[in-house]
Amino acid sequence: MKRNFIYAALMTPVMLLSSCKESFIDRPSLSGTTTGNYYNNADEVRGATSTLYSGLPWRNFESRAQDAIGDVMSGNMFTYTDVEYLNFTVSSASERIGAAWGAFYKIIGYANVMIKTFEEKKAAGGGASYLDPAIAECHFVRGMVYFYIARTWGAAPIITDPGATALSGNFNIPRYLQKDVLRFALEELKLAEAGLPESDVPGRLTKYTAKGMMAKLYLYQKDYANAKTKAQEVISSGKYMLVDDYYGMFTKMSMNNNAETLFSIQHQLAQDPWGTGNIKNPDRGASNLRTAEADAWEMYVPSLDLLKEYEFGDLRRRWSVMEHGWTNAGWKPQRVNAPKYNEFMANGFKYDTLQPADAGGNLNATRSNIAKYFAGPGKSFGGESVLGQNSGNNVVLLRYADILLIYAEAVLGTNASTNEASALDAVNKVRKRAGLGPKTSFTLDDILHERRVEFAFEGDYWYDIQRQGFAKAKAMIARQNRGSVNAPNYITNFTEDKMYLPIPAGEIVQDPELGKEPVPYYK
User: What GO terms fall under cellular component here (predicted)?
Assistant: First the structure.
């Protein structure tokens, strides 16, 4: 089956939404397209919900904020740009915090308006057969985003009816307790599980996507019984598998929506509208791979601590990291007026930390670059198609390897170790693909190690550290070398208040309630 996800009506939410006083409240338009003359068939409805998958609303999270929060803060990435995340000196004025907050509440705004619109259409006699699955898609996205919000900020606003809020004129919206934000997220995912189909075209949500995200949320809450149940339901479905080409899963458009993917941000290779394409490419690409087609300025590089984490023989190291000796014979980058560089790269790309830069060498703070999500120097130079900062490879937010490791950890639960057969089978499937031998038992630290190297540079490891609780999180961070080859750096200032990020300063100015203690959402 064709694995390119087809977009339609990307501008639909523009007709539905206009901005309001608070950046996290999107208000439905009081004029324009009405439910009476639109959403009359499945194509129109699915065209609207396709926006929820698009890079457009996700752009300000997945571009840099995801990296800074998920990987720089976790000790997986080194950077000279987002140093406050490296050193835990993040302030409420941070650009990345504001970007992530804005992206998340914009996506929620889209989902809110669509849920209300589709429910009104259904009440007016619209077809439940295509409206109900669309409503369920919105519930999934809303639940998943609130899960991100709860893990990132802890206590946070919950907005479900932006129109009523906007029309009321009351913008004094409080933060709600983290446990209530997580409960709300779980309720949304349950609604999605009930309403989504068993299967759909590749890239679209199904009830197994909802089950998988529920398993992840249950694990975060240390509800091991339910995490195990939901992960097992995904595994038993037989709908997913680990793909052989791990590296290609993140770098090839042809592998978008592959058999390992449960949910991805769907990208298209396009300059306009900006953000439709994947814009991770330049931030990760080695500077000696910059060409006339592809930008590359290595804003983020692997940390020394992460490089130390890989076991000998772990294939994920080469699939995720470029180091001295890393090659790609198919890539043949060339530059105008650069004879030494062109000669060095003529027979294929070589990552070399000894050569001078003008002769093709690359020497940075950790002697390495990120391979994951770097699509290459451009089609004319033997790589994937790249348009400056844009590539067409999707960004994966939930995949089957995660489900397997969630299942294994849920079986382990609070035990010191386990050799339970099904849990070992789940762990060893992930390890086998990486070229590693099987485990005969494992501990929580074994699982955390596996998760760190399996999902490196995917924006997830900070949440793995955070969910261990403050004492263990502090110990994990204190052991990390977050510095460069020439300047080691160890964190000594990690305190409990740094387990969550501050609310953006601009939001508190507009809504002082956000600066106060959180209150219950559920009465």
Answer: cell outer membrane
The C-alpha atoms of residue 357 and residue 251 are separated, in whole angstroms, by 25
Report the run of H or E that residue 78 belongs to, with start and end: strand 77-79
What DSSP designation does 156 have? Answer: B
Residue 268 dihedral angles phi and psi, to the nearest 5°: -125, 145
- pLDDT classification of 35: cutoffs 50, 70, 90: low
Whether 345 contacts 334, CB under 8 Å: yes
* d(C-alpha 65, C-alpha 69), whole Å: 6
What are the structure tokens assigned to 387, written together? Answer: 């348009």
State the Cα–Cα distance between residues 296 and 362, nearest whole angstrom: 12
**Structure tokens given for 147:** 């899960």
DSSP output for 49-88 = HGGGGBHHHHHHHHTTHHHIIIIITTTSEEESSSHHHHHT
Q: What angle do CA 227, 372, 82 make, to 5 degrees?
A: 90
Q: How many helices (H) and strands (E) does the chain have?
A: 22, 12
Express each pLDDT in 431-456 by its tens digit. Answer: 999 999 999 999 999 999 999 999 99
Non-local (6+) Cβ contacts of 161 within 8 A are 112, 116
Query: pLDDT of 458-487, one tens digit each?
Result: 999 999 999 999 999 999 999 999 999 999
Please give the domain boundaries of the chain with CATH numbers for all domains.
12-196+506-515 (1.25.40.390), 281-393 (no CATH)
3-state secondary structure of 236: helix
Query: Is the whole-model pTM more than 0.85?
Result: yes
